[in-house]
Amino acid sequence: xxxxxxxxxxxxxxxxxxxxxxxxxxxxxxxxxxxxxxxxxxxxxxxxxxxxxxxxxxxxxxxxxxxxxxxxxxxxxxxxxxxxxxxxxxxxxxxxxxxxxxxxxxxxxxxxxxxxxxxxxxxxxxxxx
Length: 129
Fold this sequence. Notes:
Blueprint: H1 11-23, H2 28-34, H3 41-53, E1 57-62, E2 65-70, H4 74-90, H5 94-105, H6 111-127
Antiparallel strand pairs: 1-2
Helix pairs in contact: 2-3
């Protein structure tokens, strides 16, 4: 993926990417149908082209329509975005990022989630990560 793909997404661009990821692929009309307070059809098409230029989407022609698909599988995209966020906001520190997540989620995190996190940390210790 090019450096351009790491450019931050606007709220609307994230909404579009969520729709494309949820559906697996989408036309401009399908994106517009699923956007809250959708802009004009031509504005949706322009945003899809911009996301393609940034390296997040690619298109295939299906008759007269363009069908847009993500360039990365969602898991790879999540990892890439998380690495970028880790570098940008936490100077690469996993400890600082997790501490912030725990602080933000304090009232929402369940005991089961805490137990799973503890288990993941134990597994990481055993593997010598």
